[in-house]
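FORM 7B: Structural annotation worksheet

SECTION A. Query
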Amino acid sequence: MKKALFLVNQHSRKGQKLLSQATVELQALGFKLIVESTNHADELSDTIRYHKNQVELVIIGGGDGTLNCAIEGLIDTKLPLGILPMGTANDLARTLEIPTDLAAACQVIASGKVRLIDLGWVNGQHFFNVASLGLSVEITQRLTKDVKQRWGVLAYAFTALQTILESRPFRAEIKVNNESFHVKTIQIAIGNGRYYGGGMTVAEDATIDDRRLDLYSLETKSWWEIIALLPAMRQGNHSSWPNVRALHAQEIEVYTSKRRRINTDGEITTHTPAKFRVIPQALAVIAPA
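SECTION B. Predicted structure
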């Protein structure tokens, strides 16, 4: 019988509702659980550290923001992570091909294999999916809990549309592979995984264990160009568009004349100037074979 720490964010979109169902499913699959539900996602890493000698793995029920809050505890304890997608976007689960159906996700944890994945890092903050500045930060600020609860994944589309219509470009310097690019952009995104923002694709060939970061800069002139780009951004082939700059590297620096906030996995955590890097094989996750 495997001992697991089962953490659920009560504030995630489905957390409260699915806690008891998930507990029953996991116990039926042979897990002995220590169940901790939290109202404060920032306590997750401390909870993981506290239980590190009592369990063999950590199972987290929540969305990308909840998972991000657990990164430090998972790095410190080296415990493998099982994911039950209970958030709005569930982009890490999508990248790892973990099903959103609860019973199927529990089955993956019971029979899936441990896979080592990379993490992104910016100014001391780790991230799974993407770190960005510009448009996405404005979207994050508008994407309230109420909006997410009410509209689910559609909330991203509504909020993005509203923000795009009011977006203004800014100037930045991107330093990568001993080159420097001066850009006028509305968004710079640096991805570690494949998906972010409710199913947008960082780059067509991005994977979460390719030991590189994928950057794109949206250097569009008007709002309608961004709207036209959206289908390509979902498929990941936006890098071939004329006003999109795409770069790949293990380390990237971004400078802006005035300080700009940076969003990591949907939470605003740091600001420019920013140094980004990839940390290869940093974390063990349980994913479909």
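SECTION C. Observations
The chain has a mean pLDDT of 89. The CA atoms of residues 42 and 69 lie 6 Å apart.

SECTION D. Sign-off
Analyst initials: ____
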